[in-house]
Request: fold
Amino acid sequence: MTVRSFLRALLAATLFIGLVQVSAFAGDDWKPVDPADLALKAPVVETDADAEAIFWDVRVDDEGEDLVFTHYIRIKVFTERGKESQGQIDIPFLGNTRVKDIAGRTIKPDGSIVELKKDAVFERTIVKVSGAKLKAKSFAMPAVEPGAVIEYRYREIFPFGSADNLRLPFQRDIPVQVVRYHIKPFQFFAGMRAQTYNAGDPKFLKEKDGFYLTEMSRMPAFHEEPHMPPEDQVRTWTLLYYSKDVKQQAEAYWHEHGKAFYEAFKPMMKANDDIKKAVAQIAGDAATPQQKLERLYTYCQTKIKNVDDDASGMTAEDLKKAKKNDSPADTFKHGMGTGGDIDLLFAAMASAAGFETRIALMGDRSRMFADFSLPNTYFVKEGIVAVKIGTDWSFFEPSSAYCPYGMLRWRLEGQQALIPDSKEPVFVRTPLSPAEKSAEKRSATLTLSEDGTLEGDVQIEYTGQLAMEKKEDNDDDSPEQREQNLRDMIKARMSTAEVSDVKIENVTDPVKPFVYRFHVVVPGYAQRTGKRLFLQPAFFEKGAPALFTASTRKHQIYFHYPWTESDTVTITLPKGFALDNADQPAPFNANDVAKYEVKMGMTPKNEQLVMTRKWTFNALIFPQTSYNGLKKLFELLHENDNHTITLKQQAAAQ
Reply:
């Protein structure tokens, strides 16, 4: 039993008699409904809202053995859309979390009340991800109509949970007049601290029974936008955590943490004689440091099975039988391990090969950009291998099955990493792979019929970040599902497309590009009017929607990584047809951010139209003030890709 578990158990035992007599909601009665809320005709926070929460009240109790949330939500419904969106409630939960004591009721506009029946609540599985089931307690609120007030309450119980590093969301999917949190911290721990994002720091006011109140008013709904930063970067929320040192500065904190982390991981990267012999054989006659590291990287990535990978092929029974690794020597001996085991083995091998090696700490920018201004490790949970080559640090992630040597997954590229050290830990920025590393190369050899049908063979090849995403999306699917994924992708743009003779290559290969090959028939691709055919040569952009359509923007614009698209499209024209309109879109560029190149022409015998297109985008994040310019850039790209040429049927030769 850990010290924390012992303290919780002791506290729970001493408070048990009092706790069992306390109602979860401090009484079974609902709070009185203000007649003004029932008579409310329009939203208070957002004028166009279909529904609005009058209050969202949460009690967080961290004093007992478990972490307990008690939720109480009251919502005003204004429209039919509000009835549809708020009338069906899902309370999601994972693992051994328990959702209990659900109650609800609807107060109709005339003041009559309809209670939620207990048998109306049921449990269902929302989604399965890598063997884990996301479940939900679901129920439909009774007799909901525009003008009604609905309210419901429930408890969430997290066994042996903690309010340390607890995320408190203030911004929800609907506007809220008042959001309140009543927090009771664990009394044996150090002081409770809070850091709020995307809002001013709220006050914590002491209440009775050891609770502290913090609240925010007039919270607008959170609205998603295309290509926005991760939600935690832009939503309003508070991080709650325990800290014994109130005055410690971030610089001093990370300096001490970096030294402690170095000492903790130094013995975990030791190589025994077996590893040293293997390094000598694997590195062999490698002529350069980079060649040595690449061979070691390839070995760890391909020869050691990652039990954390959903495509490892290991069954639940296999995983139960797998031996736990206590050292890199164990991982090497067993030929398998967790992602962390594989990274530590690579670090041990690199050390045995004579390199200075560390386990670097960094954040995950798919969740939120790391905040090193906070003396807390909440945002810094990723460990990758840092190896010093000459005077520079290079970064490696052999535990990632499809990450090429010299790259990291996009969420770890281009951000600060802490390099631990016994004396002077330092921050180093991980490199950002250039656009050419993540390429989508597409080619199509097609034939156009007189009726506008386009038919032919297509190949699409992905490298870098694009390939990593495709492989992760497809590696645990059946061959049939992979083909269906491709068909869905094509039909999303061209609904009449018929795809056959599908070949999908290198799905689980760590180095080679991910490749689609297929035959396609698209009836009605070109529009026939009399003796003319109207044709869009940019086949791979046919039916693609505009990227940005909104006239205004609230959040920053954020792309995960730079990328390139290179297309070659060859279209054999129907006999008797020739170009009637031979213009082509003009190339353009936006400094070092983006570049568009296109060429169109006929083969010597005027039988085939050949179009080449290249689009390069080489930036990550833009402020809201750049939205109009960025929107115009992608509108120009969309317009050029939708460029149409005219083919005219010629008179028969005399």
In short: The chain has a mean pLDDT of 91. The first helix runs from residue 3 to 20. The radius of gyration is 30 Å.
